[in-house]
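One-letter codes give the sequence; backbone shape is given numerically. An example follows:

. . .
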Amino acid sequence: MSERAPAPGGLALVESLVNTLDLESGADALDTAEGRTRLGLTDDELPAARALRESLRATLLAHAGHPPHRAVTPLGDLLAAAPLRVTVDAHDGSARLAPTDPDPLLSRVAAAVAEALVAGTWDRLKACEAPTCHWAYYDRSPAGRGRWCSMQVCGARAKMRRYRAREA
């Protein structure tokens, strides 16, 4: 839905996962072979991927100052099961957290969250406040107070609802 540029670094994976479900239409990209392949998922991994997606969505809503959209397993509980290790580059000595097994989606998401936490970008990944949307977006606004994935769609709808309520 958003016309925004993708989130930086590993957060693009998190944003992509959350945005596999279009709440307004009900279309779930994880229902398609292409959608599953894009994230490297098998059919057996779908229930866990969907639980992770909704836990991430609840966290991104919290980043934007909103309550969870529904009861979910806390993200910290899910990420605790993702084994990570510290890797150090022999050439320049740089260190980073990496998944012990890079295939599982949970491990890749945990590494992306850790990377974003260190970079200071984690709190900028948010979910749109529109109840029919909750699309993930990266807030590049100077003050970090973005509210909608798209000012032209969700923002315009919210402002029009407020205007009509005042006029009624």
Remarks:
- Residues 33 and 46 are 11 Å apart (CA to CA).
- The chain has a mean pLDDT of 87.
- The chain is about 40% helix and 10% strand.
- Strands lie at 84-88, 95-99, 125-127, 136-138.
